[in-house]
Amino acid sequence: MAGRDLMACAQTGSGKTAAFLLPILAHMMKSGVAASQFKDIQEPEAIIVAPTRELINQIYLDARKFAYGTVVRPVVIYGGTQTSHSLRQIFQGCNILCATPGRLLDIINKEKIGLSQVKYLVLDEADRMLDMGFMEDVRKLLSSQGMPKKEERQTLMFSATFPTPIQNLAREILKPDYLFVVVGQVGGACSDVEQQIIEVEEFGKRAKLLELLQLIGHERTMVFVKTKKMADFIATFLCQENIPCTSIHGDREQREREKALGDFRSGQCPVIVATSVAARGLDIENVLHVINFDIPGDVDEYVHRIGRTGRCGNTGKAISFFNKIGDDEQKIVRGLVKVLTDAHQEVPAWLEEMAFSAHGMPSFSSQPSKFASVDSRKRGDFQEDNGYSNPGISQPAARAAAEEEEDWG
Questions:
Q1: SS3 state of residue 1
Q2: In terms of Cα–Cα distance, which of 230, 228, 186, 216 is closest to 318?
Q3: How much is the pTM?
Q4: For residues 387 and 56, what is the distance between their CA atoms, to the nearest angstrom?
Q5: What is the DSSP secondary structure assignment for residue 113, as one 8-state letter?
């Protein structure tokens, strides 16, 4: 509200969307808005960017609720829909533009919107927006003709995870006097989620998943897998076992993705099998269980996945299958022990033992160092020491391989 640039890190399900929408709307109502459907080129005052279509649509629906009864008009544009439809929506008036990076740059290049009036730029899931997958798009947006310099706009970044290399990158596009607000611990899991790690060999995963889902019954459950092929395979397997199930991933058409989420929200399919495309930001009521069929190779991804449950003060349960000889399990083990410890969850003895010997590194201590202040731990200075990594910064090849598996935009 004071007009400062902001980097904000808060647990999943804590209300970050409202934290940037409400102040922006308050400023707009106070200072007035300029856009109208009679202008040839629409010039939005606020641009909100998020990595996935489902997330940006969710942000738009929240903006529309908050702006109801005002003159402020939010508009959403994203890939997988006709460009002409996006343009028609914009030409009817646009004060707040919610967009995925690819479609936003396309509209800008077509010179269908002007950027000179942008007062607020929001990057949601900012760590994902600033890794090697999207950083080029962000740079193109910031250097687009008419985009106000950082001194002339307010830039806001929100996420549940902010690895140290991403914090360093973020400083490039924020004013020098930006604020870094931390609620809880940087990269920490939500304490309302009960976490359980189960040792399962690769070929025993399907049987274990079926056993768990039969025990869970019709309670809403998200099952996360690594690849698109595996998502379809597991969804088909569960349907054959008479468990109503759907799937969502980057190879499905947009209408199929929206129908899958709609069936899941309505309870028609209480189980959805998803790739990383559904790991961030999605807020679906009454998701009581998250199952990591495939453990992610990055601890931040784990935090986001399990954050689909236990939202807004509700409780949830996250169960992760852990194959001791898996490559991703080897990468994540030390960071996983830290996340469990910080959230006051039980750490299996075998997992702790594995973390001690991981990669021949020195023993992991679940207790903070006596030399580490609370403030420095919150800033994330000790993330890399405790198994946090950002493959987009330190392992570009690994990032490229992951991009082949999942198309985010």
A1: coil
A2: 216
A3: 0.81
A4: 30
A5: B
Helix (H) or strand (E) holding 108: helix 101-109
DSSP string, 132-196: TTTHHHHHHHHTSTTPPPGGGSEEEEEES---HHHHHHHTTTS-TT-EEEESS-TTPPPTTEEEE
Q: Give 35's pLDDT tier (boundaries 50, 70, 90).
A: low
> Which of 280, 285, 307 minimizes the C-alpha distance to 56?
280
Backbone angles phi, psi at 250, to 5 degrees: -70, -15
φ, ψ (nearest 5 deg) of residue 247: -140, 160
Residues 398 and 391 sit within 8 Å (Cβ to Cβ): yes
* Two tokens, residue 380: 């994330």
Identify the H or E element spanning 29.
helix 16-31
User: Distance between CA atoms of 95 and 79, rounded to whole angstroms?
Assistant: 20
Element (H, E) at 120: strand 120-124
Distance CA 59, CA 65 (A): 10
Q: Which helix (H) or strand (E) holds 49?
A: strand 46-49
What is the 3-state secondary structure of 283-325?
CCCCEEEEEECCCCCCHHHHHHHHCCCCCCCCCEEEEEEECCC
E strands present in 51-90 = 74-77
Task: Determine which of 7-11, 372-376, 399-403 has the lowest per-residue pLDDT on average.
Answer: 372-376
